[in-house]
Structure to design on (299 residues):
């Protein structure tokens, strides 16, 4: 179970309690759509908890010391990489800048070996270019300290990652269930937007409770893909991102959703049968669901 999964389960529990509160009931009485969606959310939230228990977690080999060291390493390398990026971008060295990752969650949520290798790659690059990055942005002393953190992290026995001990099918079921609760919560917020001005307290509480409490730099992306000439939704359009291996495929209503894409300015590619390919840069902001409308031209 990942850190975002745990945060989502906690958010679900908070939202469930609010749905059962007098304030929620008073505001939504008579709104059958909101009430029906809240029942669906509650049911699926309970289902996610059950499937999490079914795909139980073993702490065998888990090391809190390793996790703490990983947290420190992720924080340190991310802010140093960000400093270096500023200078490299000022020098128009974007090709070097793009090799660095300033997202703390990029390192923290990677497997231990990948976290260490990514941090080492960043440290090596910044060390080799320190004279042009300059002490104003990253010092040699900081890079030496970073190298010590990497070496120390690698030397700690155990793993920072809790290990699943049952079937991949049960693990997938949990992932599917938790993803469904996220979709239900988004739908509930959309259905409640009518109250944003008339009852901002209710709406803001709903939005805040539905948001997992975790500092990550990844976010969800939803894209409506349509025929640029007719406005009709396009089915089976496939989206890929230059900063992620994840893909998304549109449904018959033209909507596609991809969870936890890293924030930044990736290149978005969309391909669909009988349509010309789309390629363009998009801006993804962390902490919110990023929505886009992309029109394709027919071949």
């Amino acid at each position: 179970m990942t850190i975002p999964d745990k945060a989502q389960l906690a958010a679900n529990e908070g939202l469930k309690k609010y749905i059962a509160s007098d304030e929620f009931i008073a505001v939504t009485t008579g709104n059958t759509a909101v009430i029906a969606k809240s029942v669906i959310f509650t049911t699926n939230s309970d289902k996610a908890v059950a499937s999490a228990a079914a795909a139980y977690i073993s702490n065998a080999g888990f090391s809190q010391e390793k996790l703490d060291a990983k947290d420190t390493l992720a924080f340190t390398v991310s802010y140093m990489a960000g400093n270096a990026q500023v200078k490299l971008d000022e020098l128009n060295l974007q090709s070097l800048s793009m090799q660095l990752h300033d997202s703390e969650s990029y390192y923290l949520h990677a497997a231990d070996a990948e976290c260490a290798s990514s941090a080492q790659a960043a440290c090596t690059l910044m060390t080799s270019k320190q004279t042009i990055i300059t002490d104003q942005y990253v010092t040699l002393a900081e890079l030496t300290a970073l190298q010590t953190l990497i070496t120390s992290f690698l030397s700690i026995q155990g793993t920072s990652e809790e290990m699943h001990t049952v079937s991949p099918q049960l693990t997938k079921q949990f992932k599917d269930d938790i993803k469904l609760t996220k979709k239900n919560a988004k739908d509930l917020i959309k259905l409640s937007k009518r109250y944003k001005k008339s009852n901002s307290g209710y709406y803001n509480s709903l939005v805040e409770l539905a948001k997992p409490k975790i500092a990550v730099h990844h976010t969800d992306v939803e894209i409506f893909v349509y025929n640029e000439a007719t406005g009709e939704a396009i089915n089976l359009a496939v989206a890929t991102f230059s900063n992620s291996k994840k893909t998304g495929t549109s449904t018959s209503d033209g909507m596609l959703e991809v969870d936890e894409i890293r924030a930044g300015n990736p290149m978005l590619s969309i391909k669909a049968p009988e349509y010309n390919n789309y390629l363009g840069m998009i801006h993804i902001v962390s902490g919110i669901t990023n929505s886009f409308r992309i029109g394709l031209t027919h071949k």
